């Protein structure tokens, strides 16, 4: 232990004697570690953001949208056909054992007015089950009930964005807003959800009973008054999602009278699968960025090896003198290894500070989510030490096995 401490003191003294050279040698490690920390932080932040989006959407969600349609030989995109209905949603809940809830939806947009304020926002006509599926919480007032849907009552539940833009901080509950000149009573305000993974404001929405939305705001489809734009379903558990999709597909094909060789006139999407694919993509991108950044660590390691070889050559006579005075091979080896590791680890710590600072600036200036965990910091320290050992061993070994007689003669 005493020999190790002695070797460390000698190594630190040698580094202090060449401060500028030591600092320049560390620069490659500093840049490499800072780059790795920043890229890992960006990747982790993106993953956390996607996980938050999954949580904000709800759990075990399956979305059914109308299929494509053809007009004069031209195939229009998915969602253009009028193929789903409120009756489909009711039957999905009744006949599919793996589906807990099914909520029909109609979508639109409108200018909403309250006094001298107005705001253009999205309008969703839904049933109370939609709020349960999406795990939407009402922070003020209450949600509308099934009775409001059955009676087509003119009540509305507002997201936070319309509240902020229409009421100037006043309590919206019980107040009247006008949507397409139709008066609606505000009965509830939703808890803030934030942006979606695509950057869409999830709070910029007003929920109406689906019957009221069809009759007063959005309008019913001319081809089928019972038609809806989508059906949002919730499987009873995550493990039952595949079975729920199969049951829904079979039932809808039967209800829509599709033959065995007919394509589906609807599309079923598992939202968790889409988010999982996004998460996997972000993780792959983070790994690729970290791999590119780690090249700087290799460059830094080569710089350490180069400087250590120069140091061995400059101190050849010193090494020979120490050997003549009784220093063993392992003492010389330890001394130069300690120098290399010290350069690398010191550069690593400085790189960590710069990397954390860079992550903070990226988050503030670019608006990207970043997350620096203790695992990334420990990994950076480990790899910087590993670089020091890996690239410092050859110069240290070369110094340790110098012939003492030849070393003393070196000029």
How would you characterize this protein structure?
This protein has 13 helices and twelve strands. The chain is elongated. The model is unreliable at 70-75 (pLDDT under 50). The strands form two sheets. A six-stranded mixed barrel has the order 4-5-10-7-9-8, surrounded by four helices. Strands 2-3 form a two-stranded antiparallel sheet. Helix 2 packs across helix 11, helix 9 packs across helix 11 (329-365) and helix 9 runs parallel beside helix 12 (374-400). With 411 residues, it is α+β, with helices and mostly antiparallel strands. The protein folds into two domains: 2-53 and 277-409, no CATH class; 101-234, no CATH class.
List the helices and strands and how they pair.
Elements: H1 2-17, H2 19-57, E1 61-66, E2 70-71, E3 74-75, H3 86-95, E4 99-114, E5 117-126, H4 128-133, E6 138-141, H5 146-151, E7 155-158, H6 160-166, E8 176-179, E9 182-190, E10 205-209, H7 210-217, E11 230-235, H8 241-255, E12 266-270, H9 271-314, H10 316-324, H11 329-365, H12 374-400, H13 404-409
Parallel strand pairs: 5-10, 7-9
Antiparallel strand pairs: 1-11, 1-12, 2-3, 4-5, 4-8, 4-11, 6-9, 7-10, 8-9
Helix pairs in contact: 1-11, 2-9, 2-11, 2-12, 3-8, 9-11, 9-12, 11-12
């Amino acid at each position: 232990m005493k020999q190790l401490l002695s070797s460390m003191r000698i190594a630190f003294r040698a580094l202090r004697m060449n401060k500028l050279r030591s600092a320049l040698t560390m620069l490659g490690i500093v840049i490499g570690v800072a780059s790795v920390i920043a890229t890992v932080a960006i990747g982790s932040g993106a993953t956390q953001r996607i996980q938050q989006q999954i949580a904000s959407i709800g759990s075990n969600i399956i979305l059914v949208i109308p299929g494509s349609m053809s007009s004069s030989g031209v195939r229009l995109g998915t969602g253009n056909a009028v193929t789903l209905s409120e009756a489909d949603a009711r039957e999905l809940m009744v006949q599919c054992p793996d589906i807990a809830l099914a909520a029909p939806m109609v979508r639109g947009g409108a200018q909403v007015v309250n006094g001298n304020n107005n705001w253009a926002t999205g309008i969703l006509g839904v049933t109370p089950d939609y709020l349960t599926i999406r795990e939407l919480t009402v922070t003020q007032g209450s949600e509308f009930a099934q009775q409001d849907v059955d009676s087509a009552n003119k009540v509305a539940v507002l997201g936070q964005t319309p509240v902020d833009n229409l009421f100037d901080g006043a309590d919206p509950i019980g107040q009247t807003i006008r949507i397409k000149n139709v008066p609606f009573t505000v009965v509830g305000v939703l808890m803030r959800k934030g942006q979606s993974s695509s950057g869409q404001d999830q709070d910029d929405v007003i929920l109406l009973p689906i019957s009221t939305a069809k009759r007063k705001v959005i309008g019913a489809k001319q081809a089928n008054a019972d038609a809806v734009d989508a059906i949002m379903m919730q499987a009873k558990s995550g493990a039952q999602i595949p079975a729920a999709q199969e049951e829904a597909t079979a039932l809808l094909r039967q209800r829509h009278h599709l033959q065995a060789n007919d394509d589906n006139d609807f599309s079923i999407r598992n939202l968790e699968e889409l988010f999982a694919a996004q998460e996997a993509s972000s993780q792959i991108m983070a790994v690729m960025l970290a791999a590119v950044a780690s090249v700087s660590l290799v460059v830094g390691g080569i710089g350490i090896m180069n400087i250590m070889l120069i140091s061995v050559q400059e101190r050849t006579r010193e090494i020979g003198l120490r050997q003549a005075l009784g220093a063993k091979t392992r003492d010389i080896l330890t001394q130069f290894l300690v120098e290399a590791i010290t350069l690398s680890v010191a550069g690593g710590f400085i790189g960590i500070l710069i990397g954390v600072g860079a992550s903070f600036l990226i988050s503030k200036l670019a608006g990207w989510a970043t997350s620096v965990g203790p695992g990334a910091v420990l990994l950076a320290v480990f790899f910087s030490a590993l670089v020091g050992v890996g690239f410092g061993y050859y110069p240290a070994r070369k110094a340790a096995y110098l012939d003492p007689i030849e070393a003393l003669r070196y000029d």
